[in-house]
Amino acid sequence: MTNINIISEAQLAEVVASATQPLNIEGRGTKRGFGRPSLPLPTVSLAALSGVTAYEPAELVLDAKPGTTVADIARLLAAQNQELAFEPPDLGPLLGAAPDAGSIGGAIACNLAGPRRLKAGGARDHLLGFSAVSGRGEIFKAGGRVVKNVTGYDLCKLMAGSFGTLAIMTALSLKVLPAPEKTRTLLLLGLDHAAAWEAMTKALSSGHEVSAAAYVPAGLAAALQEERLGDGLTVTALRLEGTALSVADRMAALRALLGGRTEELHTANSRAFWRRIGDVAPFVGDARAVWRISAPPSGGVTLAQAVESIPGAEIYFDWGGGLAWAAVPDTGDAAAAVIRAAVAAAGGGHATLVRATDATRAAVPPFQPAPPPLAALEARIKNVFDPRGLFNPGRMWA
User: What is d(CA 177, CA 363) in angstroms, rounded to the nearest whole number?
Assistant: First the structure.
């Protein structure tokens, strides 16, 4: 089908206003396999709408066009010892794309956040403002470049996670933060599910400012660290960040609080470990379907046991047990009924099918089906922003 390469906001508004059929919307195409299969329609590509347009380190704000790669932004910020605190993961390799090719527009549109989500918030919490083109072909703006200037409806939180189905963002203003001076990760080795959840809860409830917490079964732990510490054992990982002296003191206190068999990762190895956690590295390169599951941490043990009862399935947890990544054999339905029943039994939440064959993604709703009242509200919002149904039809819902 036709590709329409966008180079300016005005061109995009003209393309949308004159459209006579629906359009597929994408940034750099690295998440094309996330959601229902794209329909055979013209594709609007924002890859050429790229570049950082303003960066004020002292004000902790950065403006960028949606096609700018997250990797380019990360390099620019690192030169000033700053970062995107929500740690946008790179899901490109998981979905068969090249690493470091994903766009900031795609990260925000999919509302992707890494391990620091439990402390820093999600992608939507770091989007200060944006410009966009609606389904009427109208250019509009929302939010601002500083939080105190943001008034009216918080459309930033509505746009994040909409997968390009409401409007097409053409510019983004993002909050950035200083990067931590020191990062260290405590590894608790050999804990079973219940003991791991108890340790994560105790650590996160303490005053030691844990910025990330994950639980990885023994079979997956080797894919996350080159050192292979505790090889063959489960790994419960707890991250501390800050100044060197503060981190050292908190690490000693955390080890004393939790006890047991422990190892430690220092700054470079620690950062690599958490990057692999966020990028779902244990499941890159295999043929299984992959689910992203958000459920109450209190139901994590129940969820783990249910998933592990599926032959050939594996699961690990991030966000202190609040986020799970599960790989299951892609047998046509990706064990959807079992997965979603397990989520309900774990206390509710949602399960999103992130990777599967086109046939499976067409047969199984990739996104958690919404209750009728919520589905009706979503339809009304969609009609306000995109009354002609132009943007990414079928991407989220059939």
Answer: 42
Cα radius of gyration (the chain): 21
Q: What digits encode the pLDDT tens for the residues 130-175?
A: 999 999 999 999 987 765 555 556 899 999 999 999 999 999 999 9
69-77 own/partner pairs: CB under 8 Å, 24+ apart: 69/28, 69/100, 69/101, 69/102, 69/103, 69/104, 70/100, 70/102, 70/103, 70/104, 70/107, 71/100, 71/101, 71/102, 73/104, 76/52, 77/176, 77/179
375 secondary structure, DSSP code: H
Quickly state the pLDDT bin for 364 (edges 50, 70, 90): very high
Q: What is the pLDDT of residue 222?
A: 81
- In the CATH scheme, what is the code of domain 182-278? 3.30.70.3450
β-strand partners of 382: none
Q: What is the amino acid identity at position 357?
A: T
pTM for the model stands at 0.95
In the chain, where the domains are located: 3-178, 182-278, 281-363
Give residue 249's identity as a one-letter amino acid code: D
- Whether domain 3-178 has CATH 3.40.50.150: the reply is no
pLDDT at 226 over 80: no
Phi, psi at residue 143, to the nearest 5°?
Answer: 75, -160
From residue 342, alpha-carbon distances to 122, 158, 348, 371 in Å are 24, 28, 9, 18
CA dihedral 36, 318, 124, 170 (to 10 degrees): -50
For residue 331 the two structure tokens come to: 């047998």
